[in-house]
Amino acid sequence: MKHFRSGQVTVASTAARCLVRHPPITDHFRKIDRDRLLGVMQVQGDDRHYFLALERVAERNCGGDPSHG
Question: What is the CA angle 24-27-32, rounded to 5?
Fold first, then answer.
């Protein structure tokens, strides 16, 4: 488990959970394949669940140096 100032992250080989203290949010992630994650976010005190899909994008240079991509 990794701890951060605002919460903690638990990582397994195909799943992860992120807890945020303020506001109290729990995110659950499940690996779909090499480039995609499925997530669900729960906000304490809210009965709704928010689903999301994350997809890896190609890395690119954002530093303005054209010699690095």
Answer: 175
Residue 39's pLDDT band, with cuts at 50, 70 and 90, is very high
Dig out the tokens for 26 from the structure.
Answer: 């729990």
- With tokens 């997809």, the residue in question is 55
Residue in the structure block whose two tokens are 């990582």: 11
φ and ψ at residue 47, rounded to 5 degrees: -75, -10
Distances (CA, A) of 56 to 4, 27, 32, 33, 53: 23, 18, 12, 10, 10
Instruction: Please report which helix (H) or strand (E) contains residue 10, including its range.
Output: strand 7-11
Q: Is the pTM of this model over 0.70?
A: no
